[in-house]
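Data deposition worksheet. Section B asks for the primary sequence of the deposited chain exactly as it was used as input, without tags or linkers unless they were present during the calculation. Section C holds the resulting structure in token form. Section D is free text for depositor observations; keep each observation to a single sentence. Incomplete worksheets are returned to the depositor.
Section A, Depositor: J.P.
Section B:
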Amino acid sequence: MNRALEFRQKDRWAVILAAGEGKRLRSYIHRIAGRECPKQYFPIVGATTLLEQTLARVSLRLAPQRTLAVVNQTHQGFYSAIANTRPELELLIQPDDLGTAPGILYALLVIAKRSANASVAIFPSDHYVADDNRFMQYVDSAFEATLRHPETPIILGVGPSSAELGYGWIEPGALISNDAELPVFQISGFWEKPPLHTARELCRRSCLLNTFIIVGTVSSLIGTIASAIPSMYAAMNVAQSALGHALEEVMIRAIYSRMSRADFSQSVLAGHPDKFAVMPIADVEWSDLGVPERVIALRAREIKVGRPIAVPHSSADSITANDSAADSVTRAQNLTKHVA
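Section C:
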């Protein structure tokens, strides 16, 4: 490996978002586990939790010592057990869950203080990927594309098999780069969990599902947030001098106590599509496991082929499947009536 390439890879960081409550799956997990548990800390498929699977996937291409996990202090009983087995993992502990935007900005400011020229990949912690190695090759390609377009963060987008509810959607625009192995497109628009009739139209227009995996330079990502949510950036930027010091926790608590909730998809992506680009993924199965129907189908398939499931197949799977299927039919009927 030449020295320039080696340096670029050393300045690549990962941010794993693990602070959410997983509200859409809360009742389903309670049924099969008998307890409350955010989905990233639950072994929905396989023998380990979704967060542990994400950490393992990310470590295929990114160094554990440059991986930050953003967590919620109320989940201490969950993340402590994982951190104890991964001493190299650095946790950024939020005093409260105020949405994805504050957690992302917090992590970016920490990275920027350590390496102003860093590139960063942001990962949700609760998704399913069928081929980890192939998926991370796409992340590698996105990192390479940011070298040519350092001012434009790149989102990985997956081609849909159908017009499913519960996903964010991206409409690709003009081609901006075809120099690398994979093309990169401008973004014409974002839709965050649109109704069924809109999802059908977006599917027909060959739009992509938003994986919420974002790769970009730390400066471009911070700049985009500063433009979209200037009040949040101003509040968080006050903590810059305390980051990495004894006062960090006190400062972050004070800032979070006065800050409003902000979702990155709604507050940043949807309002500023021109600030981002998209790289399509075509050959890797991916799911955000956002609704019980998708979880149940995946668990049933894994059991059928004999793969280990840490939490056994439960009668709640079929119960919830019936409930969810009925809810889906009702939603679809209501949407159809509304369109008509």
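Section D:
The longest strand covers residues 168-177.
Confidence is low (pLDDT under 50) at residues 1-7, 319-340.
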